[in-house]
Design brief:
Blueprint: H1 2-6, E1 11-17, E2 23-28, H2 38-70, H3 76-79, E3 89-95, E4 99-105, E5 111-117, H4 126-144
Antiparallel strand pairs: 1-2, 1-5, 3-4, 4-5
Length: 145
């Protein structure tokens, strides 16, 4: 069982960020969530902050590709990534030595972010990450309605 656990990354933070990049809710888990380790918490917050720039850049490319596609141009660059305007899951958007950040954008442009602890050779299961985002999005939609 230990070997199967070593292949999984641990979720250390889940965040909801408004369309204007204001934090709506940030929740840390595990060792990062303990109040005695402020530096780890700060590192996760910094990682989240930096990943928002990457998400904004990606969304800008998707928007430009959508406009090009609608006007008869080619949206091949974004389509090749599987990250289109109709796919809320943006996938991995930012990585540091210690963390890997995944993002999901709602139709109102709120960003849902999951931060996983980086482990060499480990990556969270894409289906599990999508399922976590789907659950998180459903809870967000319920809270906003």
């Amino acid at each position: 069982e230990t070997s199967s656990r070593s292949h999984h990354m641990s979720l250390v933070c889940a965040a909801v960020i408004s369309p204007t990049n204001a934090p709506v809710h940030v929740q840390t888990f595990g060792a990062v969530g303990h109040h005695d380790d402020e530096s780890a918490d700060h590192a996760v917050q910094q990682t989240l902050h930096c990943s928002l720039d990457a998400v904004d850049d990606l969304l800008g490319r998707i928007d430009r590709s959508s406009i090009a596609s609608a006007s008869g141009g080619s949206g091949a660059a974004v389509a090749a990534t599987g990250r289109g305007p109709k796919d809320s899951y943006l996938g991995p958007v930012f990585q540091t030595e210690d963390h890997q950040v995944y993002a999901w954008v709602t139709n109102t442009r709120a960003r849902l972010m999951l931060v996983y602890e980086e482990r060499i050779g480990a990556e969270p299961n894409a289906d599990a990450v999508r399922a976590a985002f789907k659950t998180m999005h459903d809870a967000y939609a319920d809270a906003m309605s």
